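User: quick one
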Amino acid sequence: MKPSKLREIEMSCTCFNLRKATRAVTAVFDDFLAASGLRGTQFTLLAALYQSETATVTRLSQALVMDRTTLTRNLKPLQDQGLVRVSPGEDRRTRALSLSAKGRRVFGKAVPLWEQAQKQVIASLGKTNWDGLMKHLHLTSERMNPY
Amino acid sequence: MKPSKLREIEMSCTCFNLRKATRAVTAVFDDFLAASGLRGTQFTLLAALYQSETATVTRLSQALVMDRTTLTRNLKPLQDQGLVRVSPGEDRRTRALSLSAKGRRVFGKAVPLWEQAQKQVIASLGKTNWDGLMKHLHLTSERMNPY
DNA sequence: TTAAAATAGGTGCATATACTCTTATTATGC
DNA sequence: GCATAATAAGAGTATATGCACCTATTTTAA
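Assistant: Done. Structure below.
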């Protein structure tokens, strides 16, 4: 295998370059959100639960387009910190997910931090490039997902 | 907090949308590469090691722009499978990383599978959109990374 | 030359991701 | 009404990610 070929793989691999960019952006969000005690991923979960009256694990995982079992694990630390409550659902199979008062408080404090992170990322890229990035990310999620 | 605000967070969060797209694309690559026994991330590591004569953990982590300790953990299963060899380096501090014969063989078999995955992703997005995605990902990595 | 700083690397801990398998419960078809 | 399908969720296992901390070396500077 030629060296040029290998450089091409690194430059052109959609998976690698997505993961690399995700690592970088996640670090920015985690830094800004640190003061709230939340990670970027956790902020998303709280945001999704903030208004929902009817969240269950399966429904939420579908809404966020993530694996159900991944969501279960991601909810664990939020439960442990008392931010998310898990109560009996409509069914004896289902569990209702909701934010606790503390969860709402923490999320409320985190929103301005999230806005700062978002602002910094947009400023770093320039608005036009950021718009382009988001457009392509939305398209990618749409076209890839078998859901 | 208004529902519209929350929907906006989900639609506009750079971190969430990057992670979501990454999950989707990673699944495609992992599926195609499954026959080789490699994950997308592992394929990248083997590609980087394929030609390198002077790889060490730190140098490779810098080349791939990933945390050094993450790389250490990611190399572990490849070592265990006998694909990557770790030998004494120039220093008594450093360790030299290289592909074993088996590692080269497995990587060689995986390349066409990677090409299929890549082709499918490009086809799903359309070449123009894929070009746009990659351009924005490269830009994002450049602008975000403090390295 | 030797104490301090820099470098290379690993571990502990915690979270993020997802496949497979299992259990419990509900819904369906006959 | 009951056997079977489908649904909801958790556990086991494995990889991916990165911070804080630690050890072992090498380099540098006084």
